């Protein structure tokens, strides 16, 4: 564990630099890309289409509703997709060097979180300036949710990365699975628009609980549903434990399979 903690920061720095290697602005794209993305959505949904979401707590701009769930989703999705193939992509290092293999999926998950996390903070900064401020309650819960999301992403990245070494089709299947998860969550639509008969199915998706928590805290300044939060917390714990246990068990055969 100490070795992983020691080697993780330099590996993260290298991954971030490699992401923008050869570009003129380099790591500044980490700020420029999400800023451009946010401005584009603001122009389309707030200035042109002027869509608003109606809820019991009042109506909010669709732009804010969308980005409060979409930006965390991007961080989650990219972290797992990059993490899933990280062991296979680093096969030469794993086969030749004694190196903690856990670092690669963890670095991928954290790197994606940093990249989109900047976008999340840019959006939150602009949104709360527009709202007139942020409460300590909102700030503490947002930080807690971000840490919970990072733990969930890291756990699933470890789990899927270890399995994909033996079953390469998993990397391809993930893309299809993520499309299903995305559309069966409340990123694009409020839960109130979902028929009662289908809400149980929507809430089986842990991303729905995560997004609903972000919506409640950021947009409506209220606590998330207790049962939904407990479900998300339980799912995260199971994912982290499963990821660690399965990865440690399967990594013994990585060199032989790779």
Helicity, as a percent range: over 70%
Q: What is the approximate shape?
A: globular
Low-confidence stretches: none
Main sheet attributes: strand count, strand direction, barrel closure: 2 strands, antiparallel
- Helix and strand content put the structural class at mainly alpha
Strand content: under 5%
Protein architecture, described:
- The protein is an all-alpha fold and 258 residues long.
- It has one domain (24-252).
- It is 77% helix and 2% strand.
- The protein contains twelve helices and two strands; from the N terminus they run ααββαααααααααα.
- It has a two-stranded antiparallel sheet with strand order 1-2.
- β1 and β2 form a beta hairpin.
- The longest helix is centred in the middle third of the chain and has 31 residues, at 136-166.
- The model has no long low-confidence stretch (mean pLDDT 85).
Write a brief caption for the model:
By secondary structure, this protein is an all-alpha fold.
Label this structure with key terms.
12 helices; 258 residues; single chain; 77% helix; two-stranded antiparallel ribbon; 2 strands; mainly alpha
Topology:
Elements: H1 2-19, H2 29-48, E1 52-53, E2 60-61, H3 62-84, H4 86-89, H5 91-96, H6 103-131, H7 136-166, H8 169-183, H9 196-204, H10 206-219, H11 226-250, H12 254-257
Antiparallel strand pairs: 1-2
Helix pairs in contact: 1-6, 2-3, 2-6, 3-6, 3-7, 3-8, 3-10, 6-7, 7-10, 7-11, 10-11
């Amino acid at each position: 564990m100490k070795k992983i903690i020691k080697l993780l920061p330099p590996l993260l720095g290298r991954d971030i630099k490699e992401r923008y290697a050869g570009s003129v602005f380099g790591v500044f794209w980490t700020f420029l890309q999400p800023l451009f993305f946010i401005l584009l959505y603001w122009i389309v949904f707030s200035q042109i289409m002027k869509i608003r979401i109606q809820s019991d707590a009042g109506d909010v701009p669709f732009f804010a509703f969308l980005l409060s769930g979409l930006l965390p989703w991007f961080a989650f999705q990219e972290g797992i997709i990059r993490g899933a193939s990280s062991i296979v992509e680093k096969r030469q290092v794993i086969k030749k060097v004694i190196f903690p293999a856990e670092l690669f999926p963890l670095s991928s998950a954290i790197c994606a979180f940093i990249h989109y996390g900047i976008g999340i903070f840019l959006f939150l900064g602009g949104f709360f300036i527009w709202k007139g401020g942020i409460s300590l309650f909102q700030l503490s819960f947002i930080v807690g949710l971000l840490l919970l999301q990072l733990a969930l992403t890291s756990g699933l990245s470890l789990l899927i990365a270890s399995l994909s070494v033996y079953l390469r089709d998993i990397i391809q299947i993930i893309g299809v699975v993520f499309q299903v998860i995305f559309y069966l969550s409340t990123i694009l639509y409020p839960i109130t628009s979902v028929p009662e008969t289908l809400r149980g199915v929507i809430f089986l998706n842990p991303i729905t609980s995560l997004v609903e928590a972000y919506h409640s805290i950021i947009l409506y300044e209220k606590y998330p549903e207790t049962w939904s939060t407990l479900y998300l917390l339980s799912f995260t714990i199971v994912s982290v434990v499963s990821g660690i246990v399965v990865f440690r068990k399967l990594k013994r055969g990585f060199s032989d399979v790779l």
